[in-house]
Design a protein that fits this description.
Elements lengths: L2 E7 L3 H11 L7 E7 L3 E7 L2 H4 L10 E7 L14 E3 L2 E9 L2 H10 L10 H10 L5 H8 L5 E9 L6 E6 L4 E5 L2 E5 L11 E4 L5 E5 L2 E5 L5 E2 L4 E2 L15 H7 L1 H14 L5 H5 L3 E6 L1 H18 L3 E5 H4 L10 E7 L5 H13 L2 E6 L5 H5 L2 E4 L12 H17 L10 H9 L3 H13 L2 E6 L2 H17 L3 E5 L15 E7 L5 H13 L3 E6 L7 H6 L2 E6 L8 H18 L18
Parallel strand pairs: 16-17, 16-18, 18-19, 19-20, 21-22, 21-23, 23-24, 24-25
Antiparallel strand pairs: 1-4, 1-10, 2-3, 2-4, 5-6, 6-7, 7-8, 8-12, 9-10, 9-11, 11-15, 12-13, 13-14
């Protein structure tokens, strides 16, 4: 969602702010701004991209500043709704949602405070101004108890040179340390090229940054100790390395990410092993792509461990009063480890009982700190908004986990990167032809059964996210129960046929959509279904023969589909790294 960057130290702040904002672009945003402290505080902000802001920042000098990329929640994208917000001598940036902003705004209006924007964030700035007579810390002691909701804030004042007050509750914030100053950001990768050391704020914690050091505070704003640790991220992880987009780069990194994750899963202890084996039920909860990885995890756990499982969208789970027992095991899954709904579910599970296990790609995330046990995938930094290598890493984590718990060993799992490499460097002609069909189509449907259904829904999400085409993933057995009404000659249907017990059923589904005039493509690991005879029989225009590996098909079949989606986006001249209206890390409901 929104991104925060800040710096105070011995060097000019603006170059750090500009570069940090560029690193935060992948989170998604519609406006951008900076505030730099010198004699006073100068704010420059614009609707649009960082490139639209930079020409207007040439005169900004100062050794302390904050910057922000905004993804609209309260108030439409505009310059007046962009951050930073000024109130009196204070300037503030804010991530999250202030749930009681209307009440606070009415209270402040009665005191004669006027507002320029439609945002909830300006209310926090106004509160600092009202209570800020004695400085940042004194104001924070009055303001923070009034805030309900999620927030990560950074505040500077015209009167306190070189100081930045930051606080976090339900929204991530990281402080970075270098030899020439201190940084803050909503995202650790944005600091990788500046600061080798970091300290993450837990919910309720605050910090005061100045050139000479950082003071940390607990929820009562009493001083506390917090260590800086080396993060280990490499600046080059956030570079394209010659690829046309981060999405393309990250797709080609999939085999390495999967291999690293499986290797790690082979080495780490599983202290929750007996809890899982003795569970009365496993619950997998997540949002978006992470939820689709849970669909595969459910199939694996039920088939290998024979334990009842269910998948629940985190946005529903947290409000459903779930029935949890001491023997229930809940897996909370989030690529970023900062997904608001998933974090809320994790907190609820901790309060109501059961074993909680996190799965994330970010070891220093909020989810890793909340969960009793956390499985960390090793995808590396992922810049593209749409999850690609992180999704495959989640899948490989689940495969390795349940293979270990089922005493199957990981030898078979270690063949997965080999299958994925074959899928990465094949099908160029077929994918180019299919991409042209998808570009022209009114709608694109992905159909499958069993594990293929899990792939189908993820494939459709990628098509929607990156190309803005209407796309849906369906269980093929449901076609006759309504979906066939949507199939016509303007439709593309991509059928997944990798589950041999269901292959003949899928042949029936292919026949049904073909007879309605749809342009049909097929992915299968059985050459019977990609043969010329079969394709001619059902007028199949593109057939991709996948590497054989039935149970591992979700880890392979999605790769050519990700490449297909990227090709469609390129045909439509769309930026695959920054799809409209979306953000990498969804830190609000």
């Amino acid at each position: 969602m929104c991104g925060i960057i800040g710096y105070t130290g011995k060097k000019q702040a603006l170059p750090f702010l500009q570069r940090g904002l560029k690193k935060l672009e992948y989170r998604g945003y519609d406006s951008v701004g900076v505030a730099v402290q010198d004699i006073g505080v100068t704010i420059v902000k614009r609707q649009g991209r960082i490139e639209d802001l930079i020409p207007f920042t040439g005169g900004l000098v100062g050794f302390c500043g904050i910057g922000h990329t905004r993804w609209a929640t309260h108030g439409k994208p505009s310059e007046r709704n962009a951050h930073p917000h000024r109130a009196g001598k204070y300037a503030l940036v804010h991530n999250g949602i202030l749930e009681n902003y209307r009440e606070l705004k009415e209270e402040l209006s009665r005191l004669g405070v006027s507002f320029e924007s439609e945002t909830d964030s300006e209310v926090i700035a106004a509160l600092f101004s009202v209570y800020g007579e004695h400085g940042l810390l004194a104001a924070a002691k009055e303001v923070l108890p009034k805030l309900k909701g999620s927030y990560a804030i950074a505040v500077i004042s015209e009167e306190e040179k070189g100081k930045i007050f930051v606080s976090a509750n339900g929204s991530p914030l990281v402080v970075g340390k270098s030899e020439h100053g201190y940084f803050l950001s909503s995202d650790l990768p944005a600091l990788a090229c500046f600061a080798p050391f970091f300290a993450a704020l837990s919910d309720g914690e605050s910090a005061l940054l100045c050139e000479g050091g950082v003071a940390f505070f607990n929820g009562s704003l009493e001083k506390t100790e917090k260590e800086f640790v080396r993060h280990g991220l490499l600046p080059q992880e956030t570079e394209k390395k010659g690829f046309s987009s981060f999405m393309e780069k990250e797709i080609f990194e999939i085999p390495f990410a999967v291999q690293r994750t499986i290797d790690r899963m082979e080495r780490i202890p599983l202290p929750f092993e007996e809890s899982v084996r003795g569970a009365d039920r496993l619950i997998f909860t997540a949002c978006g792509t992470a939820y689709h990885s849970c669909l595969v995890a459910k199939w694996l756990a039920e088939n290998i461990l024979r334990i009842p499982c269910e998948c629940v969208l985190a946005s529903e789970f947290r409000y459903n009063r779930p029935l949890l027992t001491a023997k229930t095991v809940v897996f909370a899954v989030s690529q970023s480890g900062e997904t608001a709904d998933t974090l809320a579910c994790a907190k609820m599970v901790k309060e109501t009982g059961g074993t909680l296990i996190g799965v994330t790609n970010v070891a220093e995330s909020s989810l890793s700190r909340i969960t009793e046990y956390c499985l960390v995938t090793v995808a590396g930094v992922e810049i593209g908004v749409a999850a690609t290598k992180s999704y495959l890493s989640q899948l490989s984590c689940f495969y390795a986990l349940f293979y270990r718990l089922g005493n199957r060993g990981l030898f078979a799992c270690k063949q997965i990167p080999f299958y994925e490499n074959k899928a990465l460097f094949s099908y160029e002609e077929e994918l180019n032809r299919l991409a042209k069909r998808c570009q022209e189509a009114k709608s694109v449907f992905f159909i499958g059964r069993g594990l293929d259904y899990a792939v189908a829904v993820e494939a459709a999400l990628k098509m929607k996210e990156i190309t803005y085409r209407f796309a849906e993933g369906y269980a093929a057995g449901e076609l006759k129960h309504g979906t066939l009404a949507l199939i016509d000659e303007d439709s593309v249907v991509i059928a997944l046929v990798t589950q041999s017990p269901l292959a003949e059923k899928m042949e029936n589904a292919v026949a049904q959509v073909s007879s309605r005039g749809a342009k049909v493509a097929l992915l299968s690991d059985d050459d019977k279904y990609t043969s010329r005879e079969f394709c001619e029989k059902y007028a199949i225009e593109s057939a991709l023969l996948l590497p054989k590996g039935e149970e591992f098909s979700p880890l392979v079949a999605i790769i050519p589909i990700q490449r297909l989606v990227l090709k469609v986006a390129n045909l439509l001249s769309l930026d695959p790294d920054k799809p409209r209206n979306l953000a990498k890390s969804v830190t609000v409901e």
